[in-house]
Amino acid sequence: MLRRLYQWVIKLAERPSAPWALAGVSFSESSFFPVPPDVMLVPMCLARPKLAWFYASICTLASVIGGLVGYAIGSLLYDSVGLFLIQLYGYGDKVDAFSQAYQRYGHWIILIKGLTPIPYKVVTITSGFAHYSLFWFFVLSVITRGLRFFMVAGLLYWVGPTARTFIEERLGLVTAALALAIVGGFLVSLYLL
What number is the average pLDDT over the span 109-120? Predict the structure, then answer.
């Protein structure tokens, strides 16, 4: 079943509509959706390595725009939508501490958390809630999200065929590692937040 799902994702990544789906996932992950765009970015880069930089650009642009929506949720709608989303992901009791940390370490929080599998929506919503500088939020989001997606795309561009062979031969191991990274990101963010 896992192999069929993998083949389906690879076929989906080859479709002309795949960049639009990638943009949608990247946008929504930065504001409310729990699944990181890597689940589409990786197969798309494996299916078409020559378009890896284009796909990383889509992820970056859509993620930053989605981050601005997340910021707006935190700034303008925190008491309704923002609080609901934060509590949905289990961070409700830690937002005040996170908001206070922004006063001292806002730049570093955005830069570090934007590179990790830690849910970026928590950063975007809390940035708005903490009334962190919108200008610096935007600049740091472009840097950190761009770096994150271009690193993945670059790695897959340079080792694409080797990576694809590795993934296809060890699909169960790779899937388990990806699941652990996502769950680990949530756990680390709960602990550090």
Answer: 76
3-class DSSP state for residue 17?
coil
Query: pTM of this prediction?
Result: 0.75
70 closest CA partner among 58, 87, 82, 62: 82
pLDDT digits (tens, 9 = 90+) for 173-184: 766 666 676 566
Residue 111 to residue 181: CA distance in whole angstroms? 19
Closest CA to 90 of 127, 17, 98: 98
CB 30 within 8 A of CB 67: yes
Supply the DSSP symbol for 79: I
pLDDT digits (tens, 9 = 90+) for 123-138: 888 888 888 999 999 9
Where do runs of H (alpha helix) occur along the chain?
2-13, 18-29, 38-47, 52-76, 83-88, 95-115, 120-129, 134-169, 171-192
Q: Where are the domains of the chain?
A: 39-192
Q: Report whether 64 contacts 145 (CB < 8 A).
A: yes
